[in-house]
Amino acid sequence: MEKILVFNGYYLPAKNYGGPLTSLQNVIETCSDEFEFYVISRNHDYGSSVPFELKTNIWHKLGKANIMYIENGYLDYSIKNMHLLLSSLKPSMIWFSGVLVPKVKIVGCVVAKRLGIPILISPRGEVNEDHLKIKSIKKKAYLGLISLIGIFKGCFFHSTCVDETKGINNYFNPTDNRLFCVTNVAVIKQSQIIQYEKVKGVLRAIFHARIHPIKGVDFVIKCLAQCKSMVVYDIYGPIEDKDYWVHCKGLAQQLPDNIIVNYCGYLDSENKASTIQSHDCLLFATSNENYSHTIAESLANSRPVIISKGTTPWDDLDGKAGFVIPLDSPAAWAERIDYLASLDQKEFNEWIHGTSNYYDTSSIIQSAVSGHKSMFNSIIESQNDN
Question: Any residues with CB less than 8 A from the CB of 31 and at least 6 apart, and which?
Fold first, then answer.
């Protein structure tokens, strides 16, 4: 089988890296029948300096993936170490996640081009306009610089949505045959669903993502202030922006007695399904997502969602697997939250079944695996043709 070498920053047993890690897991799980995946990962979790209890710089087998954990700095700007890695493994292609951290990508591109190895880059939302609004001057200056000096010239690019395609074209302008638009591979649907009593007049809602301004926790809390029902909102995820979290806690302290907001820490992958299923729905007011594994994971566990309209690729689930509401309509959010809270077990079961059916038939999910396989094969064959 053809070897694909992936530079993802972090991999299991990391718990805090969010979407990029989940995206890669899902691709490896569904595409390893045709490709052999080798992943380069830091030897610690995102946001932590505590190393994993695993040997570094050797290959480990983890599920269907081969993983090498490296210490910080091992490959940073090191032509020697990168050449040793690539010449020994001899991958058919290289796959980079993200564009904003240059330390490994620059030497990876230089050495790979010397060895004739094609390169695929998935920006993971980093070139989307909404993402660039945060620290925009620094990020845009960096993207302009790497575009000017041509670090990624000749590389292939992977977009997951229209906004990302615009960003890629704006900064890197690849030719049409070097730009693939393929949505992320979905979370595998859970076959076992917890059955429990839905309490009429009460809603148990969950948030499970990075705590960051783009994810909209403060907006949801403001909407909850308008709700008349009893709502428990459990928040899981790493606190990426501490000032923002202080702001959210301040809003939560002002809520009426019928609203309870809990911070529950990290959500381990082994407990994720059972935790999601112990809640009634996801409340997620994100301002921009290429795909959103947070939404997909809730749907895969047959839990309806209330999400923001026009900021994710899931707008078509409205009325089938939850509700899709504009961010300029907080009253509508409160109304839908109260509606779900008002349902009894029998009524809520209809939403569980509807969510399950939607996930089974979603075109987003059906085309993703075949799209990734076709993309990988096209890139590898392009090099074989040279």
Answer: 37, 185, 369, 372, 373, 376
E runs forming strands in the chain? 2-9, 35-42, 59-62, 65-70, 93-97, 119-122, 156-159, 179-181, 202-208, 230-236, 259-263, 281-284, 305-308, 322-325
Nearest to 285 by CA among 360, 357, 205, 359: 205
- Residue pair 280/203 in contact by the 8 Å Cβ criterion: yes
pLDDT tens by residue, the chain, 386 residues: 899 999 988 888 887 776 778 888 889 988 999 999 999 999 998 888 898 989 999 999 998 999 999 988 888 889 999 999 999 999 999 999 888 777 898 899 999 999 999 999 998 877 776 666 666 677 777 777 877 777 888 999 999 888 889 889 988 888 889 999 998 887 777 767 777 789 999 999 999 999 999 999 999 999 999 999 999 999 999 998 999 999 999 999 999 999 999 999 988 877 888 999 999 999 999 998 877 889 999 999 999 999 999 998 899 999 999 999 999 999 999 999 999 999 999 999 999 999 999 988 876 666 788 899 999 999 999 876 65
- Alpha carbon 63 to chain centroid distance? 20
**What is the C-alpha separation between 30 and 372, in angstroms, rounded?**
10
Q: What residues pair up with 205 in beta bridges, in sequence order? A: 233, 281
Start-to-end CA span in the chain (Å) = 20
As given in the structure block, the two tokens for residue 165 are 């395609």
pTM: 0.69
Q: What angle do CA 352, 354, 359 make, to 5 degrees?
A: 95
**What CA–CA distance (Å, rounded) separates 146 from 123?**
14
